Amino acid sequence: MNRRLLRNWKQQAFVSVFKRRETTAVLKRRETTSDIRRVHYPFPCSVTDVIDLRSEELFKRNHIHGAINIPLVDNVLGKGEHNIAWNTNKYFAQKEMFAEYINTSLSEYFIRNKSQNFCPLVYCDKGSLISKIATHIAMDAGLDVLYVLNNGYISYRKQVLKDLRTLSLQFTFKVISGLTGTGKTFLLTKMSEKGHQVLDLECLAKHKGSMLGLWYGETQPCNDRWQSLLRNALANFDPSKPVWVESESQRIGKLCIPPILFEQICKGDRFKIILPIEERIKCSLRDYPYWKEDTDTLISIVHKLETYCGQEKVNYWISLIESERWEEFVHQLLVEHYDPTYTRSQNKNKLTNSEIQVYMENQSEEVVKSTINFLTELPGTTELKTQ
């Protein structure tokens, strides 16, 4: 096909694309006073709404924090917006045929929310075809201002990775370590409630970092989403104050902590929580309530430990589950599997020999409060005991 004809057709195809599907005439662009502003991430503070124009599937995988999803292009025969754009560029098609795949929801949203202070921002994958269509929709809707993310979602991803590198180096991390069942996450949650800066890696990853660690009924975010969540969390912290974090392996389920962030965490001052085994059993049963509620799922996961612990030991653990001898099962699991695994991992990951041991008698409200006071005051002693 003649390239000039194709270029002329593409320019005309963008005009009034949200019009009725029955319209076949080539419409001339209406005069408009809309101010189209191309910006980079982070956005100007004047942006009131962030609209993701990509498909619902891509939006679920990852999106800019606070964005809403209004897919601009309907799927065609199961194909997404990228294939539509590619086919449009490659093949000569009737303009009205392409226009009928444009979702009218964006135009309706613009008209419904139009006001003097309404300053939406739109973005697609690369900031090209779909974003251009959105600008014409904004013009026809009579918007005063429309922000467009330059280079789209791809530019946002690049900025997230850049921010992760720079933000990771800005903070001093304080690391809470301790064997499984010592209530590290519970302690950090209480610290966060008291206003301390806490980076809850397990909450963001939807995983506790072990074979049995996947949050019940949850799925882990994809890697792009995980990195965005980490970036957003760090961006909300004050670099002049320490960030408290639980000691983790670099891999949390199927996700990995970014190398620079992981290295900075490993360099942090460490506080090892020590709790009696009886209390650890109670904490474990509190943190994993689904064990008693869904024994079939628990047994299927425990079977996977045969590679590490042997078939005989795993069969014994399963017999404890089936007979509902929960305390004995948890005791066996902690002592025979979790403790040696955690100890090996911690010895490999920590980059400092400085570690303050904090003995907790239990996890009562008084003891937790006392422990938090000790930790945040950063005493110079090498061993603390709270009762």
Supply the key terms.
single chain, 387 residues, alpha/beta, Oxidized Rhodanese, domain 1, Rossmann fold, 6-stranded parallel β-sheet, 5-stranded parallel β-sheet, 18 helices, 48% helix, 13% strand, disordered C terminus
DSSP strand count: 13
How would you sum up the major sheet? 6 strands, parallel
Helix content: 40-55%
CATH level 1 name of the largest domain: Alpha Beta
What is the CATH architecture assignment of the largest domain?
A: 3-Layer(aba) Sandwich
Strand order of the largest sheet: 7-8-6-11-12-13
Strand content: 5-15%
Subunit organisation of the chains: single chain
Q: Assign an overall shape.
A: elongated
Mean pLDDT: 84
- Using only CA atoms, what is the Rg? 27 Å
CATH topology tier name of the largest domain = Rossmann fold
- Can you tell me the residue ranges where pLDDT is under 50 for at least 5 consecutive residues? 5-32, 76-97, 380-385
Structural class assignment = alpha/beta
Please tally the helical runs, counting DSSP H or I stretches of 4 or more residues. 18
Distance between the termini: 82 Å
